[in-house]
């Protein structure tokens, strides 16, 4: 189930909203121009499926998103835990790539077929932390400052949609705001 946490951008410890209520999460995001939808999970364990097979399982929904959002390219990004040092290094590098505030020239659209990821959006004086889990499709509007955290032990498979080949490339703002707000692992630990 999706988690939404909202705080003022200048007071990370002041929580204005912390909820897993689906209708509240969808409504609060929609008021800010962010789309969140739920897709029915298919095919059992997504880690057992290759990228092409995963895309085939969700072909109807993928085609609808491509049409609605004029997306030309679709792929799968995934990381699954592995005990090797090589995996730990690759996971740490992948995580660090998106932990700084950035924006894209096109909508950032992701569907989580497995696992989870934290999108943190910086909008109009607020910071919205959106913990997406398996079944969530999130569409972050073009130009929205945000950052993404896959956690210290990334475990996810996400279908990504792009209008252009370089649509995933971030325009980094230079702000250090992301350092002051909770990361994925902070939000998934039990609350006191």
- What is the CATH superfamily label? Jelly Rolls
**Count of extended strands:** 11
Mean pLDDT: 93
Coarse shape: globular
How many strands, what sense, and barrel or not for the largest sheet? 9 strands, antiparallel
CATH topology name, in short, is Jelly Rolls
Helix content: 10-25%
Q: Assign the structural class, choosing from mainly alpha, mainly beta, alpha/beta, alpha+beta, or little secondary structure.
A: alpha+beta
Percent range for β-strand residues: 25-35%
- Total count of helical runs of at least 4 residues: 5
Q: Rounded to an integer, what's the Rg over CA atoms?
A: 16 Å
For the record, give the distance between the C-alpha atoms at the N and C termini, rounded to a whole number: 19 Å
What is the domain total for the residues?
Answer: 1
Tell me the name of the CATH class. Mainly Beta
Low-confidence stretches: none
CATH architecture: Sandwich
């Amino acid at each position: 189930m999706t988690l939404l946490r909202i705080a003022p951008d200048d007071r990370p410890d002041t929580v204005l909203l912390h909820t897993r209520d689906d209708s509240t999460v969808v409504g609060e995001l929609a008021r800010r121009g962010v789309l969140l939808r739920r897709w029915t999970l298919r095919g059992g364990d997504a880690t057992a499926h290759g990228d092409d097979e995963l895309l085939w399982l969700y072909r109807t929904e993928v085609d609808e998103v491509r049409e609605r959002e004029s997306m030309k390219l679709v792929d799968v990004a995934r990381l699954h835990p592995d005990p090797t040092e090589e995996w730990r290094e690759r996971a740490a590098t992948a995580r660090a790539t998106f932990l700084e505030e950035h924006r894209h020239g096109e909508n950032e659209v992701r569907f989580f077929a497995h696992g989870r990821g934290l999108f943190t959006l910086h909008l109009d004086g607020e910071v919205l932390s959106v913990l997406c889990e398996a079944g969530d499709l999130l569409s972050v509007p073009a130009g929205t400052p945000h950052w993404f955290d896959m956690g210290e032990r990334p475990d996810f498979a996400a279908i990504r949609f792009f209008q252009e080949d370089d649509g995933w490339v971030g325009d980094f703002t230079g702000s250090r705001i992301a350092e002051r707000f909770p990361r994925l692992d902070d939000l998934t630990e039990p609350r006191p």
